[in-house]
Write a structure and sequence with these properties.
Length: about 400
């Protein structure tokens, strides 16, 4: 298994973490092709998560934007309300086979935390979720859900109290607890093999979307659009389309108050000035100053409020296979309201970024063109943030 995507990825970790990473890679290499493991994973995706998720033709939004036909991949309809559960089920099944009895996780918007707490309850494992103090304030509903599911929510008060700081604390905890504890990383970030493993557990989104659009339209889409922070939902839906060169892959980053203001969370978009560096065990594009110090990220969306992106996204950016754009908080909030009003679907603020970019490009496309937008999660967790905006 490759440890890098081009120059990106790798394992930039303390020596004490090398053994558990090697142990994890060996286990994943074994079970990713194990028929019983795959059978059990698919069983829980179907019977517990509720897959397949629909690929829904958004007719009203299509008429409103008067351009390409818009399809929505409805990951918001999964159990726990987001794509995060696909990855969590896979990692927890792997943890069980490795003999681990406890799990830890980090979370920003809380969707990964809720998914991990849910999986831990299902499989009878002790669960601790690290969450920044600021995100705990922004995502009270998901904090309540995690506690209801039996997880301990460990507040992180360092730094800006957001996802980066929660990840730092989760890694520190893993160093201490590695003997009996599995670290469930929620995105395509961190040291190898996490970016590859999480992408593989999320590729079910793209596998289904590709099959479904061929059934409905007898052709592939012109573009696939997904939001990108760490980028797990985007990596999942992009991957099965990588070899389809006529399909444009578009990742949408959080432009916050505007790329030019410096208050954003974009690293790959034009004008973002992301720099290649090392964070959380991986080499990737980051928000950093000239000395390599990490700069704070800023976004209305807690799930995109991360000062870097997954190494595979950095590779897709440099290779030109995917393009990355940004939208502002204001544009994301407008898209949140637009999808709610036109289709009766309240999207997560993260997903609203993808919808917001579609609002810009769809009217410029031909009416026989097709766009697939990944609605990675539902937005009930974000209602208070919208009310306060």
């Amino acid at each position: 298994m490759n440890t890098k995507f081009g120059i990106f990825g790798g394992q930039y970790v303390p020596e004490i973490l090398m053994y558990p990473l090697i142990e994890l890679e060996k286990a994943y290499e074994k079970y990713r092709v194990d028929e019983d493991f795959i059978k059990e994973y698919k069983y829980y995706l179907k019977e517990y998560v509720g897959r397949k998720s629909p690929l829904y033709y958004a007719e009203t939004l299509t008429k409103k934007l008067n351009g390409a036909k818009i399809y929505l991949k409805r990951e918001d309809l999964n159990h726990t309300g987001a794509h995060k559960i696909n990855n969590v089920i896979g990692q927890l099944l792997l943890a069980k086979r490795m003999g681990k009895t406890k799990v830890i996780a980090e979370t920003g918007a809380g969707q990964h935390g809720v998914a991990t707490a849910t999986g831990a309850a299902l499989f009878g494992m002790e669960c601790t979720v690290f969450m920044g103090e600021e995100d705990i304030k922004r995502q009270k509903l998901n904090v309540f859900k995690m506690k209801l599911l039996g997880a301990k929510v460990q507040p992180v008060v360092s730094g800006t109290g957001t996802l980066k700081d929660a990840t730092n604390e989760a890694i520190r905890a893993w160093v201490r607890l590695v003997e009996d504890t599995f670290y469930v990383i929620g995105s395509v970030v961190g040291p190898h093999p996490y970016p590859t493993m999480v992408r593989d557990f999320q590729r079910i989104i793209g596998d289904e979307a590709r099959e479904q659009i061929l059934e409905k339209e007898n052709k592939l889409p012109n573009a696939v659009i997904a939001c990108v922070g760490g980028g797990s939902n985007a990596a999942g839906i992009f991957y099965p389309f990588i070899e389809d060169k006529d399909v444009t892959l578009i990742g949408v980053e959080a432009g916050g108050e505007g790329i030019n203001t410096g208050k954003h969370a974009a690293v790959l978009s034009e004008g973002a000035n992301g720099k290649v560096g090392v964070l959380h065990g991986m080499k990737t594009y980051l928000l950093a100053d000239d000395d390599g110090n990490i700069k704070p990220a800023f976004s209305i969306s807690a799930g995109l409020d991360y000062p870097g992106t997954g190494p595979e996204h950095s590779y897709l950016h440099e290779s030109g296979r995917a393009i990355y754009e940004s939208v502002t908080d204001q544009e994301a909030v407008s898209a949140f309201r637009l999808l709610s009003e036109t289709e009766g679907i309240i999207p997560a603020l993260e997903s609203s970024h993808a919808v917001a970019y579609a609002v810009k490009v769809v009217p410029k496309m031909n009416k026989d063109d097709i766009v697939v937008i990944n609605v990675s999660g539902r937005g009930d967790k974000d209602v208070q943030t919208i009310l306060d905006f």
